[in-house]
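In line with agreed milestones, the collection of sequences with tokenised folds has grown. One record among many is set out beneath this paragraph:
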Amino acid sequence: MTTTLITGANKGLGFETARRLVEAGHTVYLGARNAERGRAAAERLGARFVQLDVTDDASVRAAAKTVEAEGGLDVLVNNAGIEVRGENNSIPAAADTTADEMRTVFETNVFGVVRVLHAFLPLLRRSEAPVVVNVSSGLASLTALSEPDSPAHFYQAVAYPTSKTAVNMITVQYAKAFPDMRINAVEPGFTATDLNGRTGSQSVEQGAEIIVRMAQIGPDGPTGAYLDLDGPLPW
């Protein structure tokens, strides 16, 4: 039996990923900051709830102890993420970006990933086939955002894409450090979720597909990669 933890899983892509992996036979820990919403979501899916705020050291350590006590971990999906938007869901201009805004986004999207990895690595290293999926974004691609002909070139905000580019580097460096694990970053696509005010052009079912696929790869699968459904993406 494969045991999987998904952060930020009480709604959106995390919830759909949890649903699909429960369906695939995984024992799924649904991580969420809000205990009431998290428990309700886990009950709906037949998953196990674990309270987990990726911005809080004590919360992450407690979650790791819970999962360890109940048997260990094989797959970690770092899904929790935030994006700061302006009025009317507008994308803030670079000139309006503050250090505090950057810090807020990085606390969840970057430091949260490292915090969770650090706490759960001992459990993953005991697994026979450990897998980590870091949910990144097409906006993480330096190539795409700097190429005028790319659809992503229009995006002007600084904090969110910078944080996801950092997630890609985290992925590369951890994959090198732990070659026995499959550690990859994935781009779900522009999915309609609360993160973007439901302005995305695809459903959570479509967006979760690459996350679910990479959560189920075997020991011979890729590692240190940045992928969408069509394959590797330009860094």
